[in-house]
Amino acid sequence: MTAAGGGDVRVVITGLGLITPLGDTAAAVGAALGEGRTSIAASADLPEVGESRIADFEATRYANVRGMRLYNRTTSLGLCAAKLALTDAGLEGGASLPAGGPGLGLVVGSTYAHLDTLIEYDRSLVAAGIQQTNPALMPLAIASAPGAAIAMAFSAKAFAVTLASEGASGLDALGMGMRLVAAGRADACLVVGAFAACRELSLSSARAGQLAPAGEVRVLDARHRGRAFGEAGAAVVLERADVARARGAVVKGILSGQGSVFAPAGTRREDALRRACEEALQAAGRSSRDLAFVSSGANALPRTDEVEARALHALLAGGAPGSGEPGPGNPGSGAPADSVPVTAVKAGLGDLVDASGVVQVVLALDSLARRMIPPVAGLEQPALSGLRYATAPTAVSGAAALVTGTSDVGSCSAIVVEQL
Amino acid sequence: MGRRVAVTGCGVVSAAGNDLDGFWQTLLGGVTRIKGLEGFSYADLPDLKGAEADLDGGPVDDLPPEFDDDARRARCARLGLGAARRAAAHAGLGGDREALARTGVVVGTTLGEERQIGYLSERWKEAGPDAVEPSLVVRAGNHRLTSVIADELGLGGPALLNATACSSGNAAVAWGYDLVASGAADAMLVGGADTLTRLTYCGFYRMSALSKTVCRPFDKSRDGVSFGEGAGFLVLEELESARRRGARVLAEVAGFGLSNDVNHITAPHPDGDGVKRAILQALGTSGTSLDAVDYVSAHGTGTQLNDQGEVRALKAAFGERALRIPVSSIKSMIGHTNGAAGAIEAVACTLAIVHQAIPPTATLVEPDPEFGLDFVPGQGRAARVETCLNLSSGFGGSNVCTVFRRGA
Question: Most buried residue, A1, A215, A356, B73, by CB count within 10 Å?
Answer without folding.
Answer: A356
